[in-house]
Every structure is written in C-alpha cells, then in structure tokens.
Amino acid sequence: MTIPKFDELFTSFLNFIQDKNEYQINEIVNHLADEFNLSEKDKKMRYKESGRLIFKNKVAWARLHLIKAGFIKATKRGYVEITPKGQEIIKKNKKIDRQIVEDNFEEQEEMKVGLEEKEEVTEKTPDELFRTNFEKIQQKLANELLEMIKNSSPDFFEKLVVDLLLKMGYGGTKEDAGKRIGGTNDEGIDGVIQEDRLGFSNIYIQAKKWENKVSRPELQKFVGALRDKNSQKGIFITTSNFTANAIQTAKKNNVVTINGDQLTRLMIEFNVGTTVNEKYEIKSIDKDYFD
To answer: Model's pTM, two decimal places?
Structure first.
C-alpha cells in the first residue's frame, strides 16, 4: 500500500475523533495506519534527509491543517479533540478534501504561504520548514552584505576583514592586535593580526574585492610575501571565489581561503556589520523534569 498524502487523511482523521473525546496523536497515527492498510515496512519508512518517519509526518501535517481550519484543537501537548465546527463539517461532507480545508483556514494568508510548493509541504515538518525559512533569511542577508561590501572602498574592505578576525577571537582584546597595512607598498600584504593575545605569532592577510575568481598566480604572490615575512600562516579573503588550482596552492602552503559567501556568513555569525532584530527559541520537553 502506498503511503497516502497528508490531505488524503483529513476524512479518516475527523471520523476517528468525531465523538468529541480527547485523542493522543500516536493513537491517531496507529489507527490511520491500520485504516489505510499500511504494512510494518510502510510504517517504518523514513525520509533520507531528516530521518523522520514519513507516515507520522503526514499525520502531523494533516493535524496542522485541520487545526488551522478550526476543525480540531490541541488540548495539550500531543493531544487533540474535534471542535463543533469539525463535527458540523463531517455531517455535511462525506469526504473532506483539501479545498474544503483551505476554504476554512482561519488565517488565510499565513497558511497560503508555502502551500504553493506542494512537494515542500509534504516532505517537511513545521520545525524543518522553520529552519528552511530561517536559512532563506540568512542567505538574503548574506547577499545584501556582499553587495554592500562590493560597493565599499578597498580601504574599508581591508578594515572590515581585520575587524572580523578580531571578533573571531584572534589577538585577544589588545587594541593593537590587528591592523590594516595595505597600500601601494604593502608587498602583497593588506593586514596583520596577532594569533593570540600574547602576540607570539602574526597572521598575515590578503583581501581582494574582486568580481573575477582569484587564480593560482595571486596565491603564489601571497605565499611569496609570507616567506619574506618569515611567516607560515596567512588568510586570503575575496568577495568573489577561488579557482581549484588556487585552493590547491593555498592548502599546500598553509593559507586559509575565504570566499564571498563564507565571508558574509562569518560576518553574520560574529555580528560584524549586522544587528539582531528578533530572537526565537524552539523549546522541547525536559524529560528529566518529568522523571
């Protein structure tokens, strides 16, 4: 038996709980699995990416939609019961399809968002969708940051790189732990930062605000500049990307490469050039408390 889609569960879900009693979700899952003649193999099938049980995920989505339509309500964590509106709808309709449910959404615009991508809805649970949307927000911010950086001056970019590395913990808290030394006579070095707060070792920085990929010759120049400084550690940062040969050269010479996407992700993580608007906490049951 093929695992049904979440919207094919609406009718059986409501019929099972129509007596107005309170039902546990796992009880509903088991009943629906039996009603749809799912085999033990079907019941144990999981999504490859998340590892979640597929059928249980379908029931979770059916539950969410029925709640939004006002047909059922959550009484406590893991339990639901039918509402008078839900009892009325199954009296009027032998089959509760997706159209009926969507027509009764109590938060129309909110629920419509995301339902256009049907595959997305059927594959992911609410918490997975939250994380997906969070990643989209992060990517949008990263793109905007990169555009701002590209429109800035070379001096500002070099200063930004040093600020970021200081925020990441290099150099400790010393004011002179990192500085920009770029200029016409920089000898291939744009900045220097102390590896630790005691200043035992320096890390040299090259920062390129480019559109084209950084190639091997540029890495070789930087490696040469490091040798002139008797240094074995360097960081090469660009707003674009690196060729495969450049990355290979960097790895052989103990140089860390950071491309535009990695740069903006680090800026977001360490709050450089960004500010926090809102914070959300996703909580779960503290099982130790109930033991």
So the answer is: 0.55
